[in-house]
Amino acid sequence: MRPSWIEVDLDAVEANAAKIAERVAPAALWAVVKADAYGHGDVPVAEAALAGGARCLAVALVEEGVRLREAGLRVPILLLSEPPLDAAEEVVEWELVPTVYRRDFAERLGKAALEARRRLGVHLKLDTGMHRVGAAPADAVPLARFVVEHPGLRLEGVWTHFPVSETDPDYTRRQVTALVRFRDALRAEGIEVPLLHAANTAGALAVPESRLDAVRVGLGLYGLRPAPGIAPELELAPAMRVVSRVAYVRRLPRGARPSYGRIRPLPRAATIATVPIGYADGMPRRLAAAGGEVLIGGRRRPLAGMVTMDQIVVDVGDDDVQVGDEVVLLGRQGTEEITADEWAMRLGTINYEIVTGFGPRLPRRHLRRDG
Ligand SMILES: *Cc1c(COP(=O)(O)O)cnc(C)c1O
């Protein structure tokens, strides 16, 4: 088998969850494990987060929720957006907790719930400034009334989402105020909302007013920060390590230009190690031109040419590197570390996009200290 894989430290996920849960208490921690737990492997990560103190899970897609249910997870699983209308029956069948913001979807859910002889708890999403999905404040009160009056539905929560919680705490606090006002407006109509939630990782860690009853934390569980200045005193451990092994080694003269595009001449004669991982696995093609490095033998080594679909070439200078030597693309090796933040900085993106970009060709190996 190709020696390229992703190691996920479940002890780190559990410890990160425990630290965040402690920080946000008495608000509850809900673990966001959408997109295969940001590339870390959804089921083992969900279990580790729950072991660390998370009370509920949240996902983007019905399919993601079903995977968790099929694996035997029994905790509440919140859907973060509405699926297509025809998924309503599946939501009921798998006992997922839907978010609603359209009357159409609420009606379809209510019908499905009645057919299943259930009263389904739903969360209403209010748009307070993200402007992606969510009911406009004017539509949200009648929608809440519809839910409360429907015999198949129950209003379990009201929530919102932040577009700039990592950079603009004032805007974020105004969104929290809008959410609380909405809760008060419902109360004035005799509608009680059991749960209010708004915070993502940045809100949970940096805007205490946004914690409310629960926080929906993804990135922090994985040991990453939404921005460098977010809770720098809170120690979080990156859970992901992307690893491969040297597959081929050869000596090339000064001036040789390895790989596609022949983008760069070797500044001196060097040993070039070829490593079997490429852009089809989530190593961005432009990483070489952006100064990307990998770790071999505990040292940083520059990419010697363009990342290709299945392989990369690494300049190891005059060092004795052998076929089979461990290569770390992301994570720690000895005392050196390459972080998702480093890749993101080089590539002009965010760490979220880096970790979710690793594909299914890389098996996830989930590690626990006690095996
Ligand atoms: C992804 C997501 C989150 C989690 O965000 P992080 O920044 O990873 O903590 C929370 N809420 C919603 C609606 C999301 O889509």
Structural class: alpha/beta
Q: Give the radius of gyration.
A: 24 Å
CATH topology of the largest domain: TIM Barrel
Main-sheet strand order equals 4-3-2-9-8-7-6-5
The tally of helices reads 11
CATH superfamily of the largest domain: Alanine racemase
Low-confidence stretches: none
Q: Helix and strand string, N-terminal first?
A: EHEHHEHEHEHEHEHEHEEEEEEEEEHHE
The helix fraction, in percent, is 25-40%
Count of discrete structural domains: 2
Tell me the total number of β-strands: 18
What ligands does this structure carry?
A: pyridoxal-5'-phosphate
Strand percentage:
15-25%
What would you call the shape? elongated
User: Please, what is the average pLDDT?
Assistant: 97
Termini Cα gap = 22 Å
Task: Describe the main β-sheet briefly.
Answer: 8 strands, parallel
CATH class of the largest domain: Alpha Beta
The CATH architecture name of the largest domain reads Alpha-Beta Barrel
Description:
By secondary structure, the protein is of the alpha/beta class. It folds into two domains: 9-221, Alanine racemase (TIM Barrel, Alpha-Beta Barrel); 240-338, Lyase, Ornithine Decarboxylase, Chain A, domain 1. It is built from eleven helices and 18 strands. Strands 4-3-2-9-8-7-6-5 form an eight-stranded parallel beta sheet. Strands 1, 10, 13, 14, 16, 17 and 18 form a seven-stranded mixed beta sheet that branches. Helix 1 packs across helix 3 (42-51). The chain is elongated, with a radius of gyration of 24 Å. The mean pLDDT is 97. Bound molecules: pyridoxal-5'-phosphate. Residues 32, 34, 80, 161, 200-201, 216-219, 226 line the site of pyridoxal-5'-phosphate (PLP).
